[in-house]
Amino acid sequence: MTTSDSLRDEVRRKYAEAAIAVAEGSGCGCGSGVCCEGDGSEDFGTSLYTVEQRVELPDAAALASLGCGNPTAVAELREGDTVLDLGSGGGIDVILSAKRVGPTGTAYGLDMTDEMLALAQRNAREAGIGNAHFLKGVIEQIPLPEDSVDVVISNCVINLSVDKPAVRTEIARVLKPGGRIGISDVVAEDRLTPEERAERGSYVGCIAGALSKGEYEAGLEAAGFEQLSVEFTHRVADGMHGAIVKAVKTRAPEAKGLPVIHAAARAGCC
Ligand SMILES: C[S@@+](CC[C@H](N)C(=O)[O-])C[C@H]1O[C@@H](n2cnc3c(N)ncnc32)[C@H](O)[C@@H]1O
Questions:
Q1: Ligand 1, atom 20, residue with closest C-alpha
Q2: Average pLDDT over residues 223-236
Q3: Does 123 contact ligand 1 (Cβ within 6 A)?
Q4: I want to staple 35 with a disulfide (CB 3.0 to 4.6 A). Which of 16, 45, 66, 153 is the partner?
């Protein structure tokens, strides 16, 4: 087993534990000490949902919120849109998105952890949502056709990916031309080396695998995105922040003279 495989297994195991803790009513996933953690000096992100959004959600969906922001507040969602949430966890952002896009729209949640998928499905049922669908799979190989999604959202998941170039290529593939991304993630200041990021927290705790602002911007640009912004919103550790990442797919990477990276050629993590 490669280091990447074992890291991904560790992530899956930890978030399965978090889902079980919520499903059994033994507290929130964060209480079990396995979610995005920071250095404890700031709230990581669960308080970034408005009171109005909270009342729209079943308790278990709110308790299972393990993100570091509120992508539904930044992504411009329109009636009839198809939205995809990468690493949908207990389903909080899928449920909120499904309500925003209305009955003519669709919200997909993609997650690799069975226990999270079961929790999300239960939460969507409890919320009476009919236009939310949860898919099992990894964000490095999205199980949707190309040009099929209007908006990709994600909440504190891309930092957990062991193959970030593959995630960007996949986002660009599934988005329609003009499609948008509105992502919350942990992002490091450019001054921090990968080793310094790892000193500030664990990989499963959403710290060690975080990209720097410059790496995020360069990666998205190489994948064919424009109108990029990576904006720090709140501190989660020294030199590390919850951030909002926005971009638009205005054209395919080939059109910019950039090589398309195929799955077999993908490697590395930044
Ligand atoms: C920090 S939690 C965030 C969950 C949710 N977005 C939220 O805000 O509550 C990370 C979630 O991403 C999932 N995940 C992590 N890496 C993944 C990957 N490579 N592919 C699919 N899902 C992944 C985990 O199973 C977990 O449910």
A1: 138
A2: 96
A3: no
A4: 66
